[in-house]
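We modelled each protein-ligand pair independently. The example shown here corresponds to the S-adenosylmethionine entry; the chain sequence is given first, followed by the ligand as SMILES.
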Amino acid sequence: MQYYNENAVEYAEKTLPISMTEQYEKFLRTLPQNGFILDAGCGSGRDALYFLKNGYKVDAFDGSDEMARLAGQLTGLNVKCLRFQEYTPRPIYDGIWANASLLHVPHEELHDVLAAFRKSLKPCGTLYCSFKYGKEDSVDAHGRCFTNKTCEALDKDLAAAGFTARRSIALQKSTTPEGAPQDWVGALAIAPD
Ligand SMILES: C[S@@+](CC[C@H](N)C(=O)[O-])C[C@H]1O[C@@H](n2cnc3c(N)ncnc32)[C@H](O)[C@@H]1O
């Protein structure tokens, strides 16, 4: 969390311009019009703002005080500073969007977080989550620890957390702000009906 607190403005500037159009389309296609979305680990608030502008009702939180503050400024939402591990589920959301955020949850804590998200979805609600692709975990030059996933490992985790259908578990290619290639695993997982 220290990295995000200390580099919040710079991080927001780097990530606000990233286009998520393809992922938005796949996720929003599964939701009712004007449905209720939780942006979990919202960072700059880029995606929460997009959902708001497109007529959805949005909640957002982030584990970093500074990121939550910036996201609040950008979106006008009351963005809470909250860690995934402290999140208490309420079955009110049509969709949960966790883009590149659960990747900071250690493997041994991920099951409980995914299960809490599943309990926060209405019947047949959708979780979108994404991780860096990898068989091994990694640490970057800033000291950030990443829990990495293969498609198979993520599918197994989502099934174990009670998601009855997993869709579009697919590799996505992108480029880091520094220009290096980066593979991602993105998943849409559906809560039971
Ligand atoms: C790689 S950034 C992604 C931010 C945003 N979702 C996006 O796509 O731009 C990871 C975000 O997760 C937040 N985060 C890291 N660990 C967290 C935790 N345990 N609980 C809640 N948020 C966390 C960080 O503060 C950061 O904003």
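The CA atoms of residues 114 and 161 lie 6 Å apart.
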